[in-house]
Specification:
Number of strands of chain B: 8
CATH superfamily of the largest domain in chain B: Glutaredoxin
CATH architecture of the largest domain in chain B: 3-Layer(aba) Sandwich
Number of helices of chain A: 1
Helix content of chain A: under 10%
Oligomer: heterodimer
Helix content of chain B: 40-55%
CATH class of the largest domain in chain B: Alpha Beta
CATH superfamily of chain A: Thiol:disulfide interchange protein DsbD, N-terminal domain
Strand content of chain A: over 45%
Number of domains of chain B: 2
Distance between the termini of chain B: 67 Å
Largest interface: A-B, 26 and 35 residues
Structural class of chain A: mainly beta
Strand order of the largest sheet of chain A: 1-2-3-5-11-8
Radius of gyration of chain A: 18 Å
Number of strands of chain A: 15
Strand content of chain B: 15-25%
Structural class of chain B: alpha/beta
Order of helices and strands of chain B: HEEHEHEHEHEEEH
Order of helices and strands of chain A: HEEEEEEEEEEEEEEE
Shape of chain A: elongated
């Protein structure tokens, strides 16, 4: 009970560092740290020719003792999501690396999870069913809003699910 | 010299304000506090219930959860047993879901596991109100709603601590 009280005392709610931004001609990387993990999310390229695609790569490093769930578990899996109002869509399902098996002792079950660095890769295209896309006669800056959603656990606690907002400006060209 | 003292005073004042602000963000829920009454929340039967509606004759166990929370699934069979053992002796219990996008899972999840403890449908702002960071988080309250103990997470054997606290709260 004392340990639990200490845990309640010592942890701040949903702490996320402000993103650090690094840009290069190929893309732009947002680096964010939470209580549970760090993520370097890169979008490249930032110029999107008509009919082209951009790649969102999320390099995630769980903090010591933490794990997040992978698809195939019955728990909330780590995911890249596009904002509901986004003029973009995934061209294909997000690519996940092979997950390890975490032994969840209280239920004596093995769960696919990541507890070491991993990358999620999403290929993203403009959703041509959305009116913003057509017709393009000049370069158009478009905001791409996404999030990295996850639930982290350690060997005693599961933390409330978190959603890390990610945002870039992509220039769509005819 | 006076100007120097004034500068020192200003620096100390700023430092004091910064320390108070920092401490405020870390303020925990402690066993000495009253449990903050929640606004009316929807129950599974569609009724609206406040804290006053769920307080037990002698004690109440409020548990924040969501159905796919791993440690909730480990803890709740034991928590349900505690409810079964003590509900007729003055223990009330309520489980408050904190993730609205999992509300649809609750009814089949309860049926699958045979859970009968009442459930209220909360949201993330309820979790924020109680500064929750993890689930399950238990608050054991006395008959007036004062917090007797808190407990977060689960590992095997925690249910014994919880049951002992419940027994004490019931005067056993």
């Amino acid at each position: 009970m004392a340990a639990a009280a200490v845990a309640l005392l010592g942890l701040r709610s949903g702490a996320q560092s402000p993103p650090r931004v690094a840009a290069n001609p190929q893309g732009r990387t947002l680096s964010i740290s939470t209580d549970h993990l760090t993520v370097a999310a890169t979008l490249a390229p930032l110029q999107l020719p008509h009919g082209g695609r951009v790649t969102l790569t999320a390099a995630v490093t769980p903090k010591a003792g933490m794990h997040v769930y992978a698809p195939g578990s019955r728990y909330r899996a780590v995911a890249i999501k596009l904002a509901a109002t986004s003029p973009f869509r995934f061209e294909a399902p997000v690519e996940y690396p092979k997950a390890g098996l975490y032994t969840f002792k209280p239920l004596n079950e093995q769960v696919p999870a990541y507890d070491t660095p991993f990358r999620l890769i999403a290929q993203i295209v403009l959703d041509t069913s959305k009116p913003i896309v057509t017709p393009l006669r000049r370069p158009l800056p478009i905001t791409l809003k996404a999030s990295l959603d996850y639930q982290a656990c350690d060997n005693r606690f599961c933390y409330l699910p978190e959603s890390i907002p990610l945002q870039w400006t992509v220039t769509s060209t005819p | 010299m006076p100007r120097h003292q004034g500068g020192l005073r200003t620096t100390l004042s700023i430092l004091l304000v910064a320390i108070v602000a920092a401490l405020a963000t870390l303020q925990p829920v402690t066993a000495a506090e009253s449990f903050k009454p929640f606004k009316k929340l929807k129950a599974l039967d569609g009724s609206q219930q406040s804290l006053g509606d769920v307080l037990g004759r002698k004690a109440t166990l409020v548990v924040f959860f969501f159905p796919t929370c791993p440690y909730c699934n480990a803890a709740f069979p034991e928590v349900q047993k505690i409810y079964d053992r003590y509900k007729d002796q003055g223990l009330s219990m309520v489980w408050i879901n904190v993730l609205p996008d999992e509300e649809k899972l609750i009814a089949p999840w309860r049926a699958q596991h045979g859970y009968t403890a009442p459930v209220l449908l909360g949201n993330r702002s309820v979790a924020n109100d109680y500064k929750l960071r993890m689930t399950p988080t238990h608050f054991l309250l006395d008959a007036k709603g004062a917090v007797l103990s808190t407990h977060a997470g689960y590992s095997a054997g925690d249910e014994k601590t919880l049951e002992r606290d419940v027994q004490q709260a019931l005067g056993q």
